[in-house]
Write a structure and sequence with these properties.
The protein is mainly alpha-helical.
Length: 123
């Protein structure tokens, strides 16, 4: 078995101390989440807006703790349809890449949001 005694020592990490803001000595989950979400690429932030709208419309973690794959696929389609920038074309994406990486990104963001919404309920 591997030894897990080599934890990172933040005292030896200059980036941590140079960028650590002491006003956050007391952090809530919401503060941490907002700070980390601001690190998303602008495209992800744009898509997340649509992901959250679709989740607000359809998701109910109390009645349906684990949506089916079909539900998540349908919600992904809805996000892509509601977002649909002028430059996006599913056919062009498939021809160019042989698959649909943007759809995969939306699915990942959707699953991330669904898990985030359940984190406090089921912990």
């Amino acid at each position: 078995m591997g030894e897990y005694t080599n934890y990172p020592d933040y005292n030896d990490c200059p980036d941590y101390h140079d960028h650590y803001d002491h006003k956050h000595d007391y952090c809530t989950y919401d503060m941490i989440e907002a700070e980390m979400m601001s690190m998303h690429d602008p495209l992800c932030q744009e898509i997340m807006h649509h992901v959250r709208m679709v989740c607000d419309r359809h998701d109910d973690p109390w009645r349906c703790p684990c949506p089916t794959r079909e539900m998540v696929e349908r919600w992904c389609d809805e996000v892509l349809y509601s977002w649909s920038p002028s430059w996006y074309s599913a056919e062009a994406e498939t021809q160019q890449f042989g698959r649909r990486p943007l759809r995969s990104l939306v699915l990942a963001l959707l699953i991330f949001e669904l898990l985030r919404r359940r984190r406090r309920l089921y912990r």
